[in-house]
Amino acid sequence: MNPELSIIIPHYNNFEILNNCIKSLFNIKQQNFEIIIIDNNSTDDSINRIKSKYDNIIIKKLKKNIGYTGACNIGSKEA
């Protein structure tokens, strides 16, 4: 797949907000996009819950929390 748009979502410990964000993204008309979640070493079960719910999302789990800007930089490299 060659997406026209990459959506990068830095994430840390909040399933509800992440899930609502993903649901909103799937409602947009533009269909040629990818979603990349950069998990900043969450300590809750949010990423496992997202993995079980959506199979078409790229998830990169970091081994340590590097902050919002660091996660965005990694996401842009993934894109």
What features would you describe in this structure?
With 79 residues, the protein is α/β, with parallel strands linked by helices. The chain contains 3 helices and 3 strands; from the N terminus they run βαβαβα. Strands 1-2-3 form a 3-stranded parallel β-sheet, with helices on one face. Strand 2, helix 2 and strand 3 form a beta-alpha-beta unit. Helix 1 packs parallel to helix 2. It is globular and about 35 Å long.
Summarize the structure.
The protein has 79 residues and is of the alpha/beta class.
> Low-confidence segments, ≥5 residues, pLDDT <50?
none
Mean pLDDT: 93
Tally of DSSP β-strands: 3
Please estimate the helix content. 25-40%
Structural class: alpha/beta
The percentage of residues in β strands lies in 15-25%
Indicate the radius of gyration in whole angstroms.
12 Å
Features:
single chain; 79 residues; alpha/beta; three-stranded parallel sheet; 3 helices; 39% helix; globular
Layout of secondary structure:
Elements: E1 5-11, H1 15-25, E2 33-39, H2 46-53, E3 58-61, H3 67-78
Parallel strand pairs: 1-2, 2-3
